[in-house]
Amino acid sequence: MEKRTDSANIWKIIAIAALCLLAVVSVLYAKAAGGKGASPAPAAEAAGEAATETAAAETPAEATGTEEPAETVKAEDILTLWSEDAEARQELTAYMEAVTDEGSADYIPEEDRIAVFDLDGTLFCETDPNYFDYMLLVHRVLEDPDYVDKASDFEKETAQKIVEQNETGASFTGLEVDHGKCIASSFAGMTLKEFNDYVQEFKKTAMPGYEGMARGEGWYEPMLEIVEYLQANDFTVYVVSGTDRLIVRGIVYDSPLDIPMRQVIGSDETIIARDQGDTEGLQYVYDDDDELILGGDFLIKNLKMNKVSVIAQEIGTQPVLSFGNSTGDSSMAEYVTSNNPYKSLAFMLCCDDTERENGSQEKADKMYALCEEFDWVPISMKDDWTTIYGDGVTRK
User: Strands 264-273 and 321-324, how do they pair?
Assistant: First the structure.
């Protein structure tokens, strides 16, 4: 029994010794391996760095998670219908270079690049022989066989004033508000789609003062280029018009002006649910059988100071660029350029082209004087543009 115990103890000692020896050998081997691998490490690291640099040079910015600074889209790539020496073109392109350069003190973040445009006389033919929305009312009340017999005396009187204005140049105090009321009442009960369809049909009628152009085609092509130029440089563009908002949407619909309807602002009328009747909106609940219709009541004419108010209400950010053509846009221009935290400019179109457009040198001279007084940038329709409506369109 004692011999067996002694034998077991001996084997235990042998096993422990073997484990210790193995541990020592392992440590020595590790040190030896570490020593042999130490010298080539710098070369390996250098090779790895070189490979990383090469890969970075060949890998697009998107793959590395970095963003390349946005480059300013050049004016010459878009503003092809402008004279190269036009003051307005030069002012705008210099402005764009400054506000899109991240290293510039005038840099404007993309979310604050807001531009506001008037419609009539700024983007679109102003009068032929009168505003688009004025002529729409004349058509509805005096010419539309489905409505002539339904028109109210007030609607007819207002439409006749517009006709007289077209024929004699007479002016009527309060006509812009009376017109707004009549647009609201004469189309009351139409769905939004029905009203838009009506506007689309009217857009197809011939522009009486021009050859080769329908009413809906009266876009100033050089100004469409301005919109495109701004959008290419990450500006958000709004139309802020005195024309009824729903009419402006109809004009913009299926047109060369590429902006969403939510960026169209104009004069307003009520919109209600078909089954709402005379019930106040606070007391009525829209249901799944309802649809929206025109309510028949005029709300506000979006001109002058009202443009500033609606910009603050609906956009919520002070724009940095303004484009207009009349004193109805003066408040908007001054709001944009007054106490603005960013570099800002206001441009005004001057209707000095009496050959290609229904211009007025007298009105143009007044606007040039205002531009000088208020430091707005004038745009000469005569001298700054190589075309107005494009090829194939001539004034009668």
Answer: unpaired
CA–CA distance, 67 with 103 (Å, rounded to integer): 15
pLDDT of 17 reads 59
Q: Where are the beta strands (DSSP E) in 283-376?
A: 292-300, 321-324, 345-350
pLDDT (0 to 100) of residue 38: 41
Residue 103 C-beta-side C-alpha neighbours within 13 Å: 3
| E strands present in 71-150 | 114-117
| Helix 153-168, helix 175-186: angle, nearest 10 | 130
Domain residue ranges of the chain, discontinuous segments joined by +? 2-64, 82-127+210-268+300-395
Q: Which of 111, 120, 74, 121 is nearest to 96 (CA)?
A: 74
Q: Which residues contact 327 (CB under 8 A, 6 or more apart)?
A: 304, 370
**Which positions ≥6 away from 216 have C-beta within 8 Å?**
200, 202, 203, 204, 251, 255
User: How many other C-beta atoms lie within 10 A of the C-beta of residue 315?
Assistant: 16
CATH superfamily assigned to domain 82-127+210-268+300-395: HAD superfamily/HAD-like (3.40.50.1000)
| Averages of pLDDT over each 10 residues, the chain, 396 residues | 49 58 54 44 44 44 54 88 97 98 98 98 98 98 98 98 97 98 98 98 98 98 98 98 98 98 98 96 97 98 98 98 98 98 98 97 98 98 98 96
Q: What kind and span of H or E run contains 264? A: strand 264-273
Looking from the CA of 370 toward its CB, the CA atoms found within 13 Å total 23
Measured between alpha carbons, how far is 323 from 374 in angstroms, rounded to an integer? Answer: 14
